[in-house]
Amino acid sequence: GASFVHADHHWLIFKPGTNAVYAGCDGGVYKSASSGMNNSWVSRNIGLSITQYYKIGTTEADTTLTIAGAQDNGTHLNDNGWDKVGGGDGMDCAISAADGNTMYRSIYYGDFDKSTNGGITFNAPFNLPPSGTGNWVTPFLASRINSNTLYAGFTKLWKSTNAGGTFSATSANNVQGASNIDCIAEALSNPDVLYVGIDERLFQSTDGGQTWTWISSNIGSSSVITGIAVDPLDENHIWICKSGYYAGTKVYESFNAGGAWYNRSGSLPNIPANCIAVQPNSNGMVYVGTDLGIYCRDASMSDWIPFMQGLPNTIVNDLEILSNAGIIRAGTYGRGVWQSPLATSFLDRPTVDFSVSQQVTCSTGDTLSLMDESSNYPTTWSWTIYPSTYAFVNGSSATDADPEVTFSAPGAYTVQLIASNAYGKDTLTRVAYIHVGGVQSPTVEEFAGAIPARWTVVNPDFSLGWGTAPVGSTTDAHSAIFRGFGYVTTGQVDDLISPSYLLDSASTLIYDLAYRPLTGGASDTLTIYVSTDCGGTWTALRQYVETGSNTFATGSSMANAFVPSSASDWRTDSLDLSAYTGQVRFKFEVKNGNGNHLYLDHLRLLSGAQAVPTADFFALPTSCVNKPTPFYFAGSGQGLSYAWSFPGGSPSTSTLANPIVTYAGAGAKSASLTVTNTAGSASMTKTNYLTVGSLSIPSVSIASSSPNACLGDTITFTATPTNAGANPVYRWMVNGQQRGGNTLSIDFFTLNSGDSIRCVVLSSEDCAAPSQVSSNTLFAAILPLPTVNAGTYSAVCVGAAPVNLSGTPVGGVFSGTGVSNGQFLPTTVGQGVYTLTYTYMNSNGCVNSATSTVQVLPAPNVFLNFNVDEVCAADAPFAPSGGYPGGGTYLVDGVAATQIQPSTLTLGWHYLTYVYNNGTCTSERLDSFEIKAAPPVPTVQVFGGDSLYCPQAANGWTIQWLDANQNAISGATQPWYVPGAPGTFYARLKVGLSCFPTSNAVAVTSVDEV
Fold first, then answer.
1. CB of 439 within 8 A of CB of 410?
2. What's the CATH code, domain 863-932?
3. Three-class SS of residue 451?
């Protein structure tokens, strides 16, 4: 029953002078009005949108669903509203492709579980053996090919074919040592093809994960792979994105499963790229999520474009594309989950729109910002302002998307924007769009659709206040409304402030008003003010307060919200402005009395007398034959009639304010305009004002680098355009589908025999007719590759004899580590598995390769400690020993022997070899021993009565002097021996194991005294 507050707190603060306390925690912001007592905590998170999501999951089975794993906030499910469906730190997650009720969630290090009831519980059978040993965010993939197939990445890729009931590793060995898998992708076109990213390496399997091949060694970037995208129609066409802060190493593309890589980083900012997704059934449209937002590009684009209008600049961790719904969802780390239509819905020529930071200024010193708001991502801009008393400032120019501009003269300025991209261009002209120094009277405001941008709404309490309503007084179905019904903040003041106007000495403000009080309630108060210093100070002109005599109300009081329903609900009032000339602003201020709605419409600011008009007009300086060319009136005056003259044009005259003219012939064209009202007329002629260009007819032809090519070869196609302009757009088409980039020539890797190739060129010349043309069509003649086999080979041991390699067809070449002249040389390599590549070229010049492997096994560790250096020829036969491990074979001088028989061996040195085989590989160790002849019975000579000498010992026999008991005397091993005391002594010669002849006893009766 306790009120919930997230456990991880970072900040506590009291509102001064109150018992209200706010808690900032990993779950957002919570408030208690009673110092945290009495279960009084309530969430204050509405509208924050600050959840940090690691991963999200969606499904085409129910495109309204999103499951998302959040740091510190568990797993969330959006099923017509967000609900928490898991605790801890939410990690990777997924929803079944076939059933929106089946979903998977996880917490840190790969601890997964499953729900089959739409996230109500997560206790369905799910058995993943390495659970809890993966990365912090362990990658998980619910197959879009078979909803029962699941993948989870640990040191191995684990796969389930029964929706998680059981899992098994796809390979016997780890993919890369002890490193965990970071990301997983499957090929929708071939279920046996899988990709995994580990650190900076990308691995591919073509056998369902049984074996893995490193395919990114030729990229050179050491940054970690964070995402993999596979072409839905081609398992060998892949993209990867990378993390890190190394410029120009963000996105790579390969058309042949890593055989060759193309750096597609382009102008992506030097920040981590976190995820990548490819849009099915598109021209290779790819999206990449970065630490700043989302970018996209397709095969026709030469670089990335921002795809984040309306998206906060934030870390994008995951992207999910829902093709059937035409949407893309982004999981962000800090701003929640966002959704957009797919980029292809915007890939068309721009539809121009723009705005300005301030439509009306009080003086010429203000700096205004023009802002492009065109759709479909324009890439070039051209701004024109008329008249020319302006300047671009702060380093901006007419070719910027959002230039800044100042004006040196008051007046009304016409603004035109031409925006273009690879699909074409569009033009928008707004006449008298910017008013410098104020809007010249007379003028009218109808509040059509919305409060005009040049008006200001002041709503201090962000409550009801001023807006627009779908009812009008006489001229249209809209008006300004003060929403007073239900506005309970009595005494609150809300303002509606006009732009600046320029008045003459006899101006009048006329307006339509509708108001009814609330039955039993007080009256609201409307006060109309005027300012002559651009809103710095205000003077009241009129105040309305209903006192019961209908001096304010336009009808009787009512208990419901007032909505005008007939002309009788409105009245027209006016204000005499003869006391004001020059620049003024008006403020309509309502003081809330807890009353009812108030409506304001059809404001007319009229001059006292009509002035003589001024004549001026504007048009683009260039056009083309038969191209509609708009002319715009850019003068001033009221009650005008127009008389245009266009020599050589059609029409040649017009009475419209903004006519459209075409010209049948090229050249310089003049135009003139006369404007007239009751006060007089004015004329302007502009000689050779417009240059009309002749039509140019573009064309294009294409040629290929090779009429015949082998499957997988690069074929270069080159376009030769005419009359295509300086910046034409090239669209290469294969079988009617756009492929490749906006380039004069293009390389194709994956053509099939019979594929049709053509190029569509969009000319950049203004007068191209038609603007788009198609080339001749070429058909690919693709020769098949030879079928090649590299053979199969048994395991060999380190140091084994050369292995003869045999590939088919005969005549190819083997290559690889340890390969030389058609043989694999185990003596040149160490333990491991070695790839043997057999490359063969057929008579058509087509080359194909196949690979095989040979395993080199380590030799067993063998030891030989014989510990016998010499053997007497007369020794009895004995078994050799000292070989380890046991079970090996001994050889004497290369001949297998279970006994060493000294009598059969010649005198001198002999070799003992121990050979051991562990069932696969053999190792041997070598030792030596010497056969010596049996020594004679030694004799002993006595010198001086106390020194003994054995002459046979001088011939190389080993001697040992013995005491009277024939025990060895320590250290007495030389031919001479001088006893330390009188006694009986013997001399013994020693050879081998048993040849020990001993002398007769010798007595020493005295020794020299020292």
1. no
2. 2.60.40
3. coil
Separation between Cα atoms, residue 410 and residue 391, nearest integer Å: 14
Tokens of residue 517, six digits: 């009080």
**Pairing of β 390-393 and β 404-407:** antiparallel
- SS3 (DSSP) at 951: helix
For the ranges 113-122, 124-133, 628-637, 720-729, the one whose mean pLDDT is highest: 113-122
What span, in angstroms and rounded, lies between the C-alpha atoms of 173 and 832? 13
527 contacts 591 by C-beta, under 8 angstroms: yes
Distance CA 226, CA 288 (A): 11
Residue with tokens 């003024």: 584
DSSP conformation letters of 728-797:
-EEEEEETTEE-S-SSSEEEESS--TT-EEEEEEE---TTBSSSEEE---EE--EEPPPP-B------EE
pTM over 0.85: no
Q: Name the nearest CA neighbour of 571 among 474, 485, 480.
A: 474
* 346, amino acid identity: F
- Only one residue has tokens 């009008």, namely 472
- Which are the contacts of 91, defined by CB distance < 8 A and separation ≥ 6? 54, 55, 69, 105, 106, 107, 108, 110, 136, 137, 138
Task: Find the helix or strand (DSSP H, E) in which 129 lies.
Answer: none
Fill in the amino acid letter for 167: F
State how far the Cα of 401 lies from the Cα of 805, in Å rounded to an integer.
Answer: 65
Contact criterion met (CB below 8 Å) for 525 and 585: no
Summarised one tens digit per residue, pLDDT across range 87-102 is: 999 999 999 999 999 9
Please state the rounded mean pLDDT for residues 714-718.
91
Q: Rounded to the nearest 5°, which phi and psi values hold at 903?
A: -70, -20
Q: 354-436 belongs to which homologous superfamily?
A: Immunoglobulins (2.60.40.10)
Tell the burial category of 553 from Cβ atoms under 10 Å away from its Cβ (0-12, 13-18, 19+).
Answer: buried
Q: What is the dihedral of CA 796, 800, 802, 805, to 10 degrees?
A: 0
Contact 891, 915 (CB under 8 A): yes
**CATH class of residue range 699-783:** mainly beta
Is-contact 146 132, C-beta < 8 A?
no
Closest residue by Cα to residue 898 from 877, 919, 875, 923: 877
pLDDT at 1010: 47
Cβ neighbours of residue 947 closer than 8 Å, sequence gap 6 or more: 976, 977, 978
Strand order across the 390-393 sheet: 354-356, 367-372, 404-407, 390-393
Is it the case that residue 2 has pLDDT exceeding 80?
A: no
Residue 195 carries which side chain, given as an amino acid letter?
A: Y
Whole-angstrom distance, CA of residue 33 vs CA of residue 39: 10
Phi, psi dihedrals of residue 800, rounded to the nearest 5°: -70, 170
Whether the Cβ atoms of residue 39 and residue 30 lie closer than 8 Å to each other = no
Other Cβ atoms less than 10 A from the Cβ of 40: the count is 16
Q: 951: which 2 tokens?
A: 């002459």
Whole-angstrom CA distances from 806 to 735, 834, 843, 990 are 41, 16, 20, 61
Of 3.40.50.360, 1.10.8.100, 2.170.270.10, 2.60.40.10, the CATH number of 617-693 is 2.60.40.10
Strands, E, within 130-232: which ranges?
140-142, 150-153, 157-160, 168-169, 183-187, 190-198, 201-205, 213-214, 225-230
pLDDT tens figures, 682-691: 999 999 999 9
Q: Is 439-606 CATH 2.60.120.200? A: yes
Q: Which residues pair with 604 in a beta bridge?
A: 444, 510
The Cα–Cα gap between 877 and 808 comes to: 57
337-345: long-range contacts, CB 8 A cutoff, minimum separation 24: 337/51, 337/53, 337/56, 337/66, 337/68, 337/78, 338/311, 340/307, 340/310, 340/311, 342/279, 342/282, 342/285, 343/279, 343/285, 343/287, 343/296, 343/298, 343/307, 344/279, 344/282, 344/283, 344/285, 344/298
Q: Residue 561 and residue 483: Cα distance in Å, rounded?
A: 9
